[in-house]
Amino acid sequence: MRETATEGIRTFTLRRTFGEERFISLPRAEGDSAEVLFERAVSFLEESEASLVSVEGYGIPGDSSENIRTLKSALGGEGFPITWITPTPGELSLGGLQAWAVSGARVEPIRMDGQVVGSWFEDDRARYLRLGGIISESTEQARDGQARRVFRALEKGLEAAGMSFADVVRTWFFIKEIDDWYAAFNRTRDEFFAESEIHVRLIPASTGVGCVDPSGPSLVGGLLAVRPKDSRVSSRSVPSPLQGSPLEYGSSFSRAMEVNASDHRRLLISGTASISGDGRTVSPDDTEGQIAKTWEVVESILSSRGMGWRDVSRGIAYFKQPSDSILFERFLETRGISFPTVFHHADICRRDLLFELEADAIQES
Q: Distance between CA 351 and CA 284 in Å, rounded?
């Protein structure tokens, strides 16, 4: 397992029995155009000879449809899902690209209605699936209706890979105008999970934040699923030492999930904000206080599984106010800590929350 940093790219590499997995973060710097980011990604992937599993773009300037077409062309086709979250007009240089790639394993695409919405690969122990960029077929429909369509589309993608929601270990939801209907979104998720009997099995880790594209769909969804082939691979829910279960306040997700295989462990930490053990917002309207509390909570989850910040393979820091990103940069600098991460502008699930952090961590066995 190793981490490398070259100009504009942070890469975390996991050695596997079949080859390698690479988790790539390309944060957007001041003045970076979409073309500059794409060129960096292409250069790295050509050198690594790895196949893409998924790509996520956050806050990349320019026309979204054109950017996606250019990215697909630059990266060699349409065999992987792309999640694309557009920037707020005039926002600061937050955002970037993240990608997951593998070498030594064949990556198979998942297509729905002629579009690639996912990809999967496998070894002798498990099958791994990533779905991304899932939206409702009808963006004119009411929000809860769009949400149900997204969940059904996710289910359909799972079935295409020979999997089900019982195999899902992590989800992502980007919710337009989240302040107005997060409670309704949670009810829709609860209803779907109840129908799928998710609550009697494992509830996945998750991130649910706002997205600010006024012309886009009400909801963009994605997930990560792992289907074990034998007892050498297993998944478990990981509680937070400092926060209660989200189920207690009506959100159906786990604080973290851990996937154990014979050659590694991966810890998937949900989007985490400044919330106390009894569910209250800590340091309302104080970004520095919320960063400190969020950091403490995420660190406690890592420590509870024998991990630390050196094990973090990728992260995303979400800021309600883009200008607050400098506060997190200073926070990291004073602690001498750095890990592969991308910053993004997003509303958080409560009006008084200003910061959220998600992270994945990996240790080789």
A: 9
Q: What whole-number distance in Å separates Cα of residue 323 and Cα of residue 88?
A: 13
Tell me, letter by letter, the H, E, C secondary structure of 280-341: CECCCCCHHHHHHHHHHHHHHHHHHCCCCHHHEEEEEEEECCHHHHHHHHHHHHHHCCCCCE
* Nearest-10 crossing angle of helices 143-160, 178-195: 40
Q: Phi and psi for 70 in degrees, rounded to 5?
A: -65, -40
CB 274, CB 293: distance < 8 Å: yes
Q: Is the dihedral of CA 217, 313, 129, 298 positive or negative?
A: negative
pLDDT in tens, 42-68: 888 877 788 999 999 998 877 788 888
Q: Where are the alpha helices (DSSP H) in 204-255?
A: none
Does pTM surpass 0.90?
Answer: yes
- Whether the CB-CB separation of 240 and 255 falls below 8 Å is answered with yes
Question: 97-110, pLDDT tens digit by residue?
Answer: 999 999 999 999 99
What is the residue range of 250's domain? 2-364
Number of domains the chain contains:
1
CATH number, domain of 94, equals 3.30.1330.40
CA Rg, the chain, in Å?
19
CB 273 within 8 A of CB 356: yes
How far is the C-alpha of 161 from the C-alpha of 330, rounded, in Å?
A: 43
Question: CA 300, CA 305: separation in Å to the nearest integer?
Answer: 9
Query: What is the distance of C-alpha 181 from the center of its chain?
Result: 21
